[in-house]
Amino acid sequence: MRGGDQTKTATVNVQLEDYDHVAFDLDGTLVDSEAVVESALRRWAREERISPDHALRMSAARRDVDLVAAITPGLLPEREAARIADYEIQAMRLLQPIQGAAEFYNSIPAERRSIVTSSARVSALARLQAAGLSCPRILIAAEDVSQGKPHPQPYQTLLRMLRITPKRCLVFEDSRTGIEAAIAAGCDCVGIGPNARGHPDTRGWIENFCEASFLADRADPASQNERRAAK
User: Fold this and answer.
1) What is this structure's pTM?
2) What is the 3-state secondary structure (H, E, C) of the chain?
3) Which one of 47, 70, 93 terminates a domain?
4) Which residue range(s) make up the domain with 84?
């Protein structure tokens, strides 16, 4: 399912056996943190006497350090990003689940899944805890790269750590900047949610993870071996 086809249907069936690893974006993909981010950014913007609406518009799919550098060049980006992250943690009660995300994420063996996010590590860990999702063995956060999405560096960093070729890694992203980062790194990407719909270069599109058809035994090589041995 590619190009125009994905605007007509919201179901994608990807064979996990075609990939060694599955990488997830976090915000908007595994968790709905829009209210958390908005609360934190509006609080920070008001304190800095910046238009909260302007801060929100400029924040789309950006790391907080990049946002601060773009709209308040007189402030220290790292310090302000840490402050925004703290405000997000305080607003974590507003976090909402993505339908089917926890079940799908947990169906992937721990050694075959990771998260690549533009959020600060402390915020990402708080989101995972609030959503009841276990922390992956590899979590690429804002501090781990010098260039955030849509630059491919976040996914290139993951691929180097995994020591796999890009086409062996499947990515789930909810934003166009995230999709562009994954594709620029050479990975196959499935879009999720309304903001990702219609991108011509994705592997497919789903509204939520209830619409992803993945079989557990395809995710687990051990299960495949057991089935072969039984024949």
Assistant:
1) 0.85
2) CCHHHHHCCCCECCCHHHCCEEEECCECCCEECHHHHHHHHHHHHHHCCCCHHHHHHHHCCCCHHHHHHHHCCCCCHHHHHHHHHHHHHHCHHHCEECCCHHHHHHHCCHHHEEEECCCCHHHHHHHHHHHCCCCCCCEECHHHCCCCCCCCHHHHHHHHHHCCCHHHEEEEECCHHHHHHHHHCCCEEEEECHHHCCCCCCCEEECCHHHECCCHHHHCHHHHHHHHHHC
3) 93
4) 34-93
